[in-house]
Amino acid sequence: MRTFDLAPLYRATVGFDQIADLMDRVLTNDVAQPTYPPYNIEKTAEDAWRISVAVAGFSEDELNVEVRENALIVSARKAADEAERTYLHRGIANRAFERRFHLAEHVRVTGASHLNGMLNIDLAREVPEALKPRRIEISGGDTVEVKAVEKKADAKK
Q1: Neighbour tally for 48: CB within 10 Å
Q2: Residues in the chain with pLDDT < 50?
Q3: Residues whose CB falls within 8 Å of the CB of residue 29, separated by 6 or more in sequence, listed in order
Q4: Taking the model in full, what pTM does it have?
C-alpha cells in the first residue's frame, strides 16, 4: 500500500510532471509486475548503457524494438506454427511479451543486436550543444579600455 500522497506536488509545481510521474511509478506497489523475460541493465560508459533481454526461442523477425514518447518498448510475438507440436515437457517460455523502459531526456537508442538468445539494446545520452556547459572567456577590464582608447586615438589621426 502506498503511503505517500503526491497530489500536493502536482498542484504546487509547474514543469516537474516527469519527476512526479516517476515517483508515482516507483512508489506504486503492483504485485503483478512482469518478470518475463529477464533482463540486465549495465553501464558501459559515463553516458552509455546496454539493456540485455533474454529472448531464447525468438527470431529477429518475431522481435520488435521501438521508441515512443520517451519509452523504449521491447515486444515479441511467436509465430503460429507452434500448434502442431506436442510437448512432453515445456520449460522454455516462448510466450508473447511487452516490456517498457522509461528513458530520460536526451537518451537515445544507438543500436540493437540479437545474438545467442540475447537481445542487446545500446543507449547513449546525447546532450545537444545548446545545453552543454561552455567556457566563457574572461577579459581584463584594462584591455577593453585600452582598445577603446587606441581606437579613439587612431580615429583622431
Answers
A1: 14
A2: 1
A3: 1, 2
A4: 0.66
